[in-house]
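Typical record is below.
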Amino acid sequence: MFFGGPSVSGGGFAILFAGVLAFSGNLLGSIFFDPVMLVMLSLLLGFYVLANAVLLGVGAGFALQHRLSLGWLLAVESCFAFLLGAYISFSLLITAHSIALLAGLHAVGTGGFQALLALKLHRYKQFKVLLSISALIAVIVGALFLLHQAEPPRVISLWLSGFELTYGVIVLAFAWALRAEAQRRQTAAD
């Protein structure tokens, strides 16, 4: 089970991103006007999604190297995240509506790929449960972003930081479950 490293990195990075986003969203939201807040949100979300795409690519590379069928799913998710992150990062013509739309697409896309990964790992009940919970939360939060696009940037940043904090905790739990499974298999093999 080689996904432990990228999963721990992704979960820790999501929690760090949530903290930075909540802190900077409150600070910049109270000092500056919405346009400055939107540029900051665009850069933070875009580069976070790009870094997540790199970690997914590493996981996909390991999976493909070990000839696992879920490697292609991770590779497609990595490509989706890379394209979305590049678009978010480099298009600075962002409005409050478009950042909520892009955050919603990110959350719904993440939830969809996690649901597919849960189906691929259906033999492992603990992985299936964690991924299913994470997918359900991501799709619900993504739908909330898509339905409430008129919210101010400060509210969007707080919602997004709450979602990423939850996502990071679930990914860390998934990584610890993967590690425990790998250790169980190692001791059973010895």
